[in-house]
């Protein structure tokens, strides 16, 4: 029989290992969560099936001698004073615990009509006070500590589930598959390669902006009376155009454009691939605008000093480098978006199947009316 890990891999197409997203240990927790979720949801719609998830405690001889960790109690039984003569205990509220030990009370609990209550931290107390055989008690409850049929704590390499209907195991596999896909989607948003490309892009843009600022300052120091006013203003305007385009490109990546909180970095983390791609495309367009302005500037560099020309050259190289890093971000982001979309689509398919199973199991309206 296939292991749970093999079944989840088959449903999701994920590679799951000790160091993947998600890891094998995380898959184990998803399976345990799935057992609890399926148990609770199934019992909520079909309480008559709770025995399918039932677990029996050992015989207990001391008051509050078992901790079932808040599990749903199906029944409590106590020996009547005769070994293995089990009598069903009625449940009482804590306010009645004094009455059930009062032999003159109508609520008195005898060995033939015992009672139990759930007290502090879900501890169970039985009346009359239990003792060694033949006065022990047992608890039947919905299992909430997932194990395999051999009694070992459930892990990804198991293939069956104890205290759990075999016909519902597939629902646990679907639940774990959904959580694994969510884990994989979350892992896509921590790409070190993209983070590195983003960092390099921002660094080159920042340096280029600085160089063009210095270039404009160098032009400002030129004696404008020596040149045609139109040509002089034109070259100064080109420096401004380049800087404006670089500022916008930077802001589309990590500066709150087109609106506060809508740049590529913030929305990449917020799982909105369409906004990411749009911001990257707008940043690329601004870099193209900067390159175009730089080309126009080259025809009038006779107005610029050698100092300004040096800044233009270095700034142009930085723009080219920034374009390369932005292209890398775009390529990797497109691949991640493709993966994310597939994972999201598969998640929705599995969730629909999961929810449908409970919808089918839910009693129909006419059945509910007959039960009233």
What does this structure look like?
The protein is of the alpha+beta class and 372 residues long. Among the domains are: 76 residues, no CATH class; 149 residues, Four Helix Bundle (Hemerythrin (Met), subunit A), CATH 1.20.120. It has nine helices and seven strands; from the N terminus they run ααβββββββααααααα. The strands form two sheets. Strands 1-7-2-3 form a four-stranded antiparallel sheet, with no helix packed on it. The chain has a three-stranded mixed sheet with strand order 4-5-6, with no helix packed on it. A hairpin with a 5-residue loop joins strand 5 and strand 6. Helix 3 runs antiparallel to helix 8. About 2% of the residues have low confidence.
| CATH fold field value of the domain at 192-340 | Four Helix Bundle (Hemerythrin (Met), subunit A)
Cα-to-Cα separation, first versus last residue: 43 Å
CATH domain class of the domain at 192-340? Mainly Alpha
Helix content: 40-55%
Helix and strand succession? Answer: HHEEEEEEEHHHHHHH
How many beta-strand segments?
A: 7
* Major sheet description: 4 strands, antiparallel
Mean pLDDT: 83
Q: Class by helix and strand content?
A: alpha+beta
| Number of discrete helical segments | 9
- Rg value: 35 Å
How much of the sequence lies in strands comes to 5-15%
CATH architecture of the domain at 192-340: Up-down Bundle
